[in-house]
Amino acid sequence: MANVTVIGAQWGDEGKGKIVDWLAERADVVVRFQGGHNAGHTLVVGNNTYKLSLLPSGIVRGTLSVIGNGVVLDPWHFKEEVAKLAGQGVTITPDNLHIAETCPLILPFHRDLDGLREDASGSGKIGTTRRGIGPAYEDKVGRRAIRLCDLAHLGELEPQIDRLCAHHDALRAGFGEPPIDRARLMDDLAGIAPFILPYAKPVWVTLNEARRRGDRILFEGAQGVLLDIDHGTYPFVTSSNTIAGTAAGGSGLGPSAAGFVLGIVKAYTTRVGAGPFPTELEDETGERLGTRGHEFGTVTGRKRRCGWFDSVLVRQSAAVSGITGIALTKLDVLDGFDEVRICTGYRIGDRTYDYLPPHAADQARVEPIYETMDGWHESTQGARSWAQLPAQAIKYIRRIEELIQCPVALVSTSPEREDTILVRDPFAD
Ligand code: GDP
Ligand code: IMO
Ligand code: MG
């Protein structure tokens, strides 16, 4: 079974896009299975930088790409992203991109509601991307979503729109907002339908056929395990399951299709948005990590919070998501530090923890227990072989493997596609 499932093992932005793009050379199909255009995946190929939010990263190489049923889809954003990539020479057609007919749609009032709630939350803000992701998933689970296949049945949509608007108008009234303009919504849906419907396919058929042919399927997760609705730092999470198991349910394949689960792990830790972050550094060192790592959000441009590597969190992510091996990214950002620290446990008062306690108040209160190692002054930037890494950087990697109880399969040393060290081929497993 030569499939690979890529997931983020921290709070997102670990470098999934770069690694998926690298692996896509050897994949036959690349599949997004959860999240939406809250994701921001950056690919650097020579002088070109591609930023993808909704589209699978494989599209840049022209690999057959699939948006699975687990994704929430903003059709107007889709059109914009297709146009943006076309401007960069990436051709997207219904032949190389299939979208699940059962994808729930993100509608304009989902985005409004996301923003209204954030604005009304004061210090309780989640710091969402304000793209309507949470409200769209709520409607999916509430069984009132408009799905992509509904656009082929516009004449029969009225009763569904009634139900959906009844729900949302009540919420909107609570915020002092006018009811949804139904005529405009219907016009907007009718306007976008001819553009997006040609991409709508039974992707479970596409994928099951690919599997029978023995094609290599590469699943591309969005966000990270610590943003998972069940396993993350609730309520400061996204509204989908981001763990590897979602690859099956979010695409229409069985769980055995996941193959090698590759957790993408940044060599330090970042988080964008609110919520607990035990190893956060609100000092010069944190600034230095952010500056060296260019830690600004791809989607919102927000400054990412930065801190030391937290082995407790990554061990937990690896366990709950069944990670087979990791890709350690942005190692080069740590070049030049006299010393580097790794969090190996937490303390609250006299009690120590080797996992993140579940309650948000405890998560905010834990004090990290650190181990300090010598850093390295040589450059790892652009290294493409293990032999090019300084001894102390190798020691750091080996210590991480030991603490997270998971082997390293790849190491990334710059944003550029080819600056990647292959330790163990995930497709060969
Ligand atoms: P994703 O959301 O997990 O795909 O990650 P993002 O694209 O949001 O953020 C990762 C950022 O780090 C992007 O700007 C990448 O180009 C960049 N990047 C990826 N791998 C490396 C690396 O090994 N070193 C450095 N310096 N940058 C990297
Ligand atoms: P990629 O795929 C980092 C965060 C938001 C917020 C929380 C909820 O690029 O790693 P949402 O809009 O999903 O309701 O926001 O989740 N978040 C991300 N953080 N990377 C992402 O995606 C994220 N997608 C959502 O900042 O804290
Ligand atoms: Mg990102």
Query: Could you tell me the strand content as a percent range?
Result: 15-25%
Provide the succession of SSEs: EHEEEEHEHHHHEHEHEEHEEHEEEHEHEE
Q: Supply the number of helical segments.
A: 12
CATH superfamily of the largest domain: Adenylosuccinate Synthetase, subunit A, domain 3
Shape: globular
What does this structure look like?
By secondary structure, this protein is α/β, with parallel strands linked by helices. The chain folds into 3 domains: 4-103 and 200-260, Adenylosuccinate Synthetase, subunit A, domain 1 (Adenylosuccinate Synthetase, Chain A, domain 1); 108-196, Adenylosuccinate Synthetase, subunit A, domain 2 (Orthogonal Bundle), CATH 1.10.300.10; 265-428, Adenylosuccinate Synthetase, subunit A, domain 3 (Adenylosuccinate Synthetase, Chain A, domain 3, Alpha-Beta Complex), CATH 3.90.170.10. It has 12 helices and 18 strands. Strands 7-6-5-2-8-1-9-13-17-18 form a 10-stranded mixed β-sheet, with helices on both faces. The termini are close together. Magnesium ion binds at residues 12-13, 39-41, 298.
